[in-house]
From TrEMBL:
InterPro entries: Ribosomal_bS6, Ribosomal_bS6_CS, Ribosomal_bS6_sf, Ribosomal_S6_plastid/chlpt, Transl_elong_EF1B/ribsomal_bS6. Keywords: Ribonucleoprotein, Ribosomal protein, RNA-binding, rRNA-binding. Binds together with bS18 to 16S ribosomal RNA. It holds the Pfam family Ribosomal_S6. One of its GO terms (biological process) is translation. One of its GO terms (cellular component) is cytoplasm. It comes from the Bacteria. One of its GO terms (molecular function) is structural constituent of ribosome. Belongs to the bacterial ribosomal protein bS6 family. This is Small ribosomal subunit protein bS6.
Amino acid sequence: MRKYELMFIIRTDIEQEVVQSTVEKFQAIISNGGGEIAKTDLMGKRRLAYEINKFRDGHYVLVNFNAEPAVVSELDRVLKISDEVIRHLIVNDVA
């Protein structure tokens, strides 16, 4: 298994319960695929550097996890089609 770091930004016009359920949905994808979540950091609402799809703010979430590459590709696919997520980035954490 490899170490990965996932950062995603959730829209601010949705309820706090939806934000929490969105984070849990992505954690479940990692766990169900045999991955291990090392740390999840809900960084809260922050201003974006530039406007994305008419949004100026977003809820930032950082997840450090260990998983196989197949789990990462499935996670990336679901993040792309999720309406709650404005942007996401998954990087291989070599540190």
